[in-house]
């Protein structure tokens, strides 16, 4: 939701409360949190690091908690993405190459021309129904795919696309599950599992038995458990109830047969490695540069708590998206790519938004362009360039209200985004002191 819609939602929720009802919301939005009568903060971290009540009470009670990541954010006045280390040297008056969408008329777009600077973090904003997704998902992304990659796709109505010559690839990074199979996991998706299997194949026990790297794939019938086929689980039909998955009785959920599990690296079998937290696996494989670098990136994007072989089915949308972004960072210093993300902060805590911004900055610093369709004020405030559509939704939207730096948008009286962004930027300029969060926040 756009921040204006959040304010309207709060009015409705307040009315329900005043009528004698109880309203319980699971929420990350700062305005909703500050408006709540009672807050229950669960954590302090993700995964195994969470699962208990860190603090509860009023906003002031949460802010006083030294263990709460939510409290740290609220104390800072919303300083996500604005740390001194992230202050960009890129300035708005540098000569920039731009992609220009000319004469966009799809849906409610009013024959608009839109400049998108390359090599920048670009936020496309506006109230719901203003034309953001139409511009980016229906026109920009497919038009670039057709021009750059020769893909046959349907493109929304526009007259032309200019300035795309420096673009080498277009990649949409969404929150859909990783991989094409339920067996997919962070190790297989990033490609690091191939490197790990190669290490196991070089161990003396493996060489003595004639095992190759393929033996350590849970898709290989020689190495996988014969009962579950390498899934580690068995499906039980419950007829009149929902089917359930239970650990395989033969391998105990380890996926591999007993002979494969005899090969160990410092006492750890290939199954043990897949069940390790990524941060623990990083220590085990630190001597192996290519594996170490990939695992370090996964930790950098805030996924160190996750099991290396965790099933894609168990990942949240935000976790899946960060695995995809980590995979992109693992490609090395590629440049000229346009990354497109549609509301990447949906379901993310403030601490996760901070990590997301750090990843997006790394992609931009490598010479790529990141275009995000976003309502989150922290992301908008951290962007290099903002394109605000509107001023309203539907027929009253579809034109460019203002485009420029976040400060330019904040100064535009006609922009609903600008009004809320001005308050956010004003709060960030207030001297709030050092932001000290719980130890797990990287």
Strand order of the largest sheet: 7-10-11-5-12-13
Question: Major sheet, described briefly?
Answer: 6 strands, mixed
Which class do the helix and strand fractions yield? alpha/beta
Shape: globular
The CATH superfamily of the largest domain is identified as: P-loop containing nucleotide triphosphate hydrolases
CATH class of the largest domain: Alpha Beta
Helical content, roughly?
25-40%
CATH topology label of the largest domain: Rossmann fold
Q: Could you give the distance between the termini?
A: 28 Å
How many E-type strands?
13
Work out the radius of gyration: 24 Å
* Proportion in β-strands: 15-25%
How many helices? The count is 16
What sequence of helices (H) and strands (E) makes up the elements?
Answer: HHEEHHEEEHEEHHHEEHHHHEHEHEEHH
When the domains are counted, the total is 3
Any low-confidence stretches, pLDDT <50, length ≥5? 82-87, 430-442
CATH architecture classification name of the largest domain: 3-Layer(aba) Sandwich
Mean pLDDT: 91
Describe the structure.
With 442 residues, this protein is α/β, with parallel strands linked by helices. The chain folds into three domains: 3-76, 3-Layer(aba) Sandwich (Rossmann fold); 96-176 and 313-429, Rossmann fold; 186-312, ABC transporter ATPase  like domain (ABC transporter ATPase like fold). The chain is built from 16 helices and 13 strands. The protein has helices spanning 3-18, 30-35, 59-64, 69-76, 132-149, 186-190, 192-201, 204-209, 270-275, 278-284, 289-300, 317-329, 350-365, 377-382, 406-410, 416-429; strands at 39-43, 52-57, 98-104, 112-117, 121-125, 160-162, 169-172, 233-236, 244-247, 337-342, 369-373, 385-390, 399-404. The relative contact order is 0.15.
């Amino acid at each position: 939701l756009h921040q204006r819609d959040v304010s309207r939602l709060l009015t409705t929720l307040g009315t329900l409360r005043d009528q004698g009802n109880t309203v319980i919301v699971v929420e990350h939005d700062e305005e909703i949190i500050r408006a709540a009568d009672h807050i229950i903060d669960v954590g302090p971290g993700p995964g195994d690091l969470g699962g208990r009540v860190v603090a509860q009470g009023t906003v002031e009670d949460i802010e006083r908690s030294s263990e709460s990541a939510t409290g740290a954010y609220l104390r800072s006045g919303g300083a996500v993405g604005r740390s001194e280390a992230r202050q960009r040297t890129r300035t708005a008056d540098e000569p920039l190459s731009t992609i220009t969408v000319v004469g966009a008329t799809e849906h409610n777009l009013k024959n608009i021309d839109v400049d998108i600077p390359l090599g920048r973090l670009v936020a496309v904003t506006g109230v719901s129904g203003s034309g953001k997704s139409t511009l980016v998902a229906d026109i920009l992304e497919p038009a670039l795919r057709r021009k750059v990659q020769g893909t046959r796709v349907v493109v929304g109505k526009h007259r032309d696309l200019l300035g795309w010559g420096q673009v080498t690839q277009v990649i949409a990074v969404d929150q859909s599950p990783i991989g094409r199979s339920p067996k997919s996991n962070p190790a297989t998706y990033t490609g690091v599992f191939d490197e790990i299997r190669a290490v196991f194949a070089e161990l003396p026990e493996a060489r003595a038995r004639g095992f190759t790297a393929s033996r350590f794939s849970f898709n290989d019938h020689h190495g996988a458990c014969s009962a579950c086929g390498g899934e580690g689980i068995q499906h039980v039909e419950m007829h009149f109830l929902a089917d359930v998955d239970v650990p395989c009785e033969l391998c105990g959920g380890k996926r591999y047969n007993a002979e494969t599990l005899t090969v160990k690296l410092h006492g750890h079998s290939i199954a043990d490695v897949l069940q390790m937290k990524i941060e623990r696996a990083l220590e085990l494989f630190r001597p192996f540069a290519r594996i170490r670098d990939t695992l370090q990136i996964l930790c950098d994007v805030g996924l160190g708590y996750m099991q290396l072989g965790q099933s894609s089915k168990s990942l949240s949308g935000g976790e899946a998206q960060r695995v995809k972004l980590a995979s992109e960072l693992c490609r090395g210093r590629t440049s000229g790519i346009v990354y497109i993300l549609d509301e990447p902060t949906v379901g993310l805590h403030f601490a996760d938004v901070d990590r997301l911004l750090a990843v997006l900055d790394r992609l931009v610093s490598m010479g790529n362009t990141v275009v995000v369709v976003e309502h989150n004020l922290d992301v908008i405030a951290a962007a290099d360039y903002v394109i605000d559509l509107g001023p309203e939704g539907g027929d009253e939207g579809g034109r460019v209200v203002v485009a420029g730096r976040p400060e330019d948008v904040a100064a535009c009286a006609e922009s609903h985004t600008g009004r809320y962004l001005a308050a956010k930027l004003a709060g960030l300029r207030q001297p709030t002191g050092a932001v000290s969060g719980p130890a797990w926040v990287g």
